[in-house]
């Protein structure tokens, strides 16, 4: 079979990879990092079968460069600095920094090197593994199922939008790059949402699609940004504050949505004082009960004597349309909300999605960890460090 590249543009990536990349380049360009690929649930067939194709796709990925029209688009985003664009003009993935191999039935992928040279592998790796995996199913049948389901989802969203207005509108974004059935299918999904649901659909995390389809690119920070600060020489108890302060200094009012679940919502709010609550526009939920999380957020703002209506809550944890509508109904009259839907938009085609991630495991030779509000999302290679992190932030063992 002739080789068909999956990634053909380095813009085919989540916006938050670029925003974190710029922040780390400006502040800690010397940081070394290790990223590990993992599959959280046994797939329908062993991912190890993909290893040769994965290596072929990685070979191709490492030939790509940012094109001048792509750099011009990035330069037009007011929060992207000219020196970062100059760095990207020179940037090329180095094949020696990433390795993929079969380990029994498991596919192993590890990227090791300077963080500013390996952090951008993540989304591309997840996209290409997903697409290679789903090339083994009937494409035409899957896309037809996906279209039918998408039409039903749009109808449900439109029905809510057509109801008497609430205090704040229903707004949905595409967050599906990393879990998509294919790049072509994501483009079709986002195009349909843009054309048929303009009242509700407000943007995509995919920078390439945002550019090509005239949409707003959506995204701020992910866990790796916060986790890196666990290894940057600050006292562990202070890493969240240091990360938030670094973000404020980098973006000075732009990209003001903070991620809350690196060590859990309670520990986050203990650090999210009046200073940060005023500087950030809102918070993003990514694990645990979303309604309980939202109530904690609103209570925290009220305790700080900040009107919740001046902030925004963004939800992005495994959402489907019924869940979106349930959460929206709970908060629509009290606080602006936004909903980033991933897998359920870009990989709901009649085949069970694979649960793959590629996460920061080590920075500067030190293990980093995430204490998610959902036990299944707790992440660390080092149980001793995980226990220490729980102790420092007073997070009980589930």
UniProtKB/TrEMBL annotation:
Functional pathway: Cofactor biosynthesis; NAD(+) biosynthesis; nicotinate D-ribonucleotide from nicotinate: step 1/1
Domain Nicotinate/nicotinamide phosphoribosyltransferase: 172-396
Glycosyltransferase in keyword set: yes
Catalyzed reactions: 5-phospho-alpha-D-ribose 1-diphosphate + nicotinate + ATP + H2O = nicotinate beta-D-ribonucleotide + ADP + phosphate + diphosphate
Post-translational modification: Transiently phosphorylated on a His residue during the reaction cycle. Phosphorylation strongly increases the affinity for substrates and increases the rate of nicotinate D-ribonucleotide production. Dephosphorylation regenerates the low-affinity form of the enzyme, leading to product release.
SUPFAM superfamilies referenced in this protein's UniProt entry, alphabetically: Nicotinate/Quinolinate PRTase C-terminal domain-like, Nicotinate/Quinolinate PRTase N-terminal domain-like
Ranges of residues in domain Nicotinate phosphoribosyltransferase N-terminal: 11-130
UniProt keyword annotations, A-Z: Glycosyltransferase, Ligase, Phosphoprotein, Pyridine nucleotide biosynthesis, Transferase
EC number: 6.3.4.21
GO cellular component: cytosol
One function term, GO molecular function aspect: glycosyltransferase activity
Modified residues (Phosphohistidine): 223
Pfam families per record: NAPRTase, NAPRTase_N
Keyword DNA-binding: no
InterPro entries referenced in this protein's UniProt entry, alphabetically: N/Namide_PRibTrfase, NAPRTase_N, Nic_PRibTrfase, Nic_PRibTrfase-Fam, Nicotinate_pribotase-like_C
Superkingdom of the organism of origin: Bacteria
Gene Ontology biological-process annotations: NAD+ biosynthetic process via the salvage pathway
Protein role: Catalyzes the synthesis of beta-nicotinate D-ribonucleotide from nicotinate and 5-phospho-D-ribose 1-phosphate at the expense of ATP.
Membership in a protein family: Belongs to the NAPRTase family.
Protein's UniProt name: Nicotinate phosphoribosyltransferase
Organism this protein belongs to: Ramlibacter pinisoli
Lineage of origin: Bacteria, Pseudomonadati, Pseudomonadota, Betaproteobacteria, Burkholderiales
């Amino acid at each position: 079979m002739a080789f068909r590249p999956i990634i053909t543009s380095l813009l085919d990536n989540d916006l938050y990879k670029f925003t974190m990349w710029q922040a780390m380049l400006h502040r800690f360009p010397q940081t070394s990092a290790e990223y590990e690929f993992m599959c959280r649930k046994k797939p329908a067939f062993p991912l190890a079968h993909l290893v040769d194709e994965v290596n072929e796709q990685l070979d191709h990925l490492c030939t790509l460069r940012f094109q001048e029209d792509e750099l011009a688009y990035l330069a037009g985003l007011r929060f992207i600095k000219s020196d970062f664009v100059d760095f990207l003009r020179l940037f090329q993935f180095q094949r020696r920094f990433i390795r993929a191999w079969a380990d029994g039935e498991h596919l192993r992928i590890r990227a090791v090197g300077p963080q500013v040279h390996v952090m951008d592998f993540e989304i591309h790796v997840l996209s290409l593994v997903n697409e290679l995996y789903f090339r083994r199913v009937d494409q035409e049948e899957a896309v037809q199922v996906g279209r039918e389901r998408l039409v039903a989802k749009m109808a449900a969203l439109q029905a809510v939008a057509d109801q008497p207005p609430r205090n704040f509108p229903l707004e949905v974004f595409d967050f599906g790059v990393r879990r998509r059935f294919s790049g072509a299918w994501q483009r079709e999904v986002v195009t349909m949402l843009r054309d048929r649901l303009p009242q509700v659909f407000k943007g995509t995390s995919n920078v390439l699609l945002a550019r090509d389809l005239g949409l707003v690119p959506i995204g701020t920070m992910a866990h790796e940004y916060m986790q890196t600060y666990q290894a940057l020489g600050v006292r562990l108890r202070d890493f969240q504050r240091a990360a938030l302060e670094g973000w404020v200094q980098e973006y000075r009012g732009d990209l003001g949505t903070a991620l809350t679940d690196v060590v859990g919502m309670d520990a986050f709010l203990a650090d999210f004082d009046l200073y940060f609550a005023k500087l950030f526009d809102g918070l993003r939920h990514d694990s645990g009960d979303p309604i309980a999380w939202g109530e904690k957020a609103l209570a925290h703002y009220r305790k700080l004597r900040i009107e919740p209506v001046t902030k925004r809550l963004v939800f992005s944890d495994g959402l489907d349309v019924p869940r979106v509508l349930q959460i929206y109904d709970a908060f629509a009259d009290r606080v602006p909300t936004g909903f980033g839907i991933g897998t359920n938009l870009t990989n709901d085609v009649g085949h069970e999605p694979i649960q793959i991630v590629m996460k920061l495991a080590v920075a500067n030779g030190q293990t980093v960890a995430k204490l998610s509000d959902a036990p299944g999302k707790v992440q660390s290679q080092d149980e001793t460090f995980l226990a220490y992190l729980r102790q420092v932030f007073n997070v009980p063992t589930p």
